Amino acid sequence: MLDTTPLTAAVDQFADRLRAAPQSRLQRGAATEALALARELAAWAQRIEVPDAEPREMPDAGMFAAADQITVAGRDLALVLEDSGQLAEALTLVEEAQKRAGV
Fold first, then answer.
1. SS3 75
2. Neighbouring residues of 95: CB distance < 8 A, sequence distance ≥ 6
């Protein structure tokens, strides 16, 4: 079984930083970046779980929900990842999104 602890830790760290960020930072793009990441991770998990179905898009629940959305999407993906290459790719996505978000 693949140890996905690094992914859940990275997602949790990003989410914690979003929760601690001021509203002005969220409005300047951090929340948008987090939602984009959550949508990407959720779609990836759906493609693994149901490869023949079109992934559903995670809705925009507002800037204050973005941290929760990346947490849920990241943990869902962590449950279905199949190999260390996918894990490394997911970690890169989270790290790059966090840098772009500036948190």
1. helix
2. 10
Helix 5-20, helix 66-80: angle, nearest 10: 180
> Which residues, in sequence order, are CB contacts of 35 under 8 Å at separation 6+?
58, 60, 66, 69
Is the whole model's pTM more than 0.90, yes or no? yes
Q: State the sign of the Cα–Cα–Cα–Cα dihedral 71, 100, 95, 98.
A: negative
Contact in structure between 25 and 102 (CB atoms under 8 Å) = yes
Alpha helices, DSSP H, located in 1-83: 5-20, 23-25, 31-49, 66-80
**Nearest-angstrom CA–CA distance, 16 and 20:** 6
Q: Tens of pLDDT along 35-50?
A: 999 999 999 999 999 9
Query: Residue 3: exposed, middle, or buried by beta-carbon count in 10 A (0-12, 13-18, 19+)?
Result: exposed
